[in-house]
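Work Package 4 report. The design task specified in the project plan requires that, given a folded chain encoded as structure tokens, an amino acid be chosen for each position. We show below one input record used in the internal validation round.
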């Protein structure tokens, strides 16, 4: 994962990029290093803690400028195609996974961890209405599956937050997000299987 992140950053710094090509998907290869932190601290091997902290540092450091870059593209350039709207939820995943990674390394929910979680909640509240609007205005495509990982990351973060900040509000939010995520993924699974059965796979991928 670190090698892939190094390769992508090196390319960005050596090949001129166009702002119109900046999409939320740009965040995946770099912010993906946060997954190292989530898993690494559970390994009982020498250096696992240091590698986990390294992955956390890279992911958090690049999350801020990449978020700013992509947000500026969305504000000042032509709108993304509606087929690309599901990828907007990667913004949610960025802060949700950041929270989970930071919690794994530090082991407690402090002010910074809470801030990451609240940012994820805010982006979730902003983007879920767009997801619901997409459902009523655009035919289903396989690109909709881009929402699965961000929703799962948000559910995981909400459940972890509830373990440390036990309250009825945190519990209710975690259960609501988990139920919503389960419903969305099950609905997309049924729709995808039905499309394949009807021979619509080529159409769904356009």
């Amino acid at each position: 994962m670190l090698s892939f992140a190094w390769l992508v950053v090196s390319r960005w710094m050596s090949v001129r990029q166009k702002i119109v090509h900046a999409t939320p998907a740009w965040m995946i290869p770099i912010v993906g290093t946060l997954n190292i932190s989530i898993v690494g601290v559970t390994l009982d091997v020498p250096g696992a803690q240091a590698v986990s902290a390294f992955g956390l540092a890279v992911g958090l450091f690049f999350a801020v400028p990449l978020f700013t870059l992509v947000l500026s593209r969305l504000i000042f350039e032509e709108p993304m195609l509606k087929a690309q709207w599901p990828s907007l939820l990667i913004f949610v995943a960025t802060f949700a996974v950041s929270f989970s990674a930071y919690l794994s390394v530090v082991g407690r929910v402090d002010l910074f961890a809470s801030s990451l979680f609240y940012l994820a909640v805010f982006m979730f509240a902003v983007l879920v209405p767009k997801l619901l609007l997409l459902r009523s205005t655009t035919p289903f495509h396989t690109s909709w599956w881009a929402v699965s990982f961000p929703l799962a990351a948000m559910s995981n973060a909400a459940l972890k937050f509830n373990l440390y900040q036990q309250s009825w509000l945190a519990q209710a939010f975690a259960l609501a997000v988990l139920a919503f995520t389960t419903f969305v993924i099950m609905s997309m699974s049924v729709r995808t299987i039905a499309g394949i059965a009807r021979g619509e796979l080529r159409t769904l991928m356009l």
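The chain has a mean pLDDT of 88. Validation will be extended to a larger panel in the next phase.
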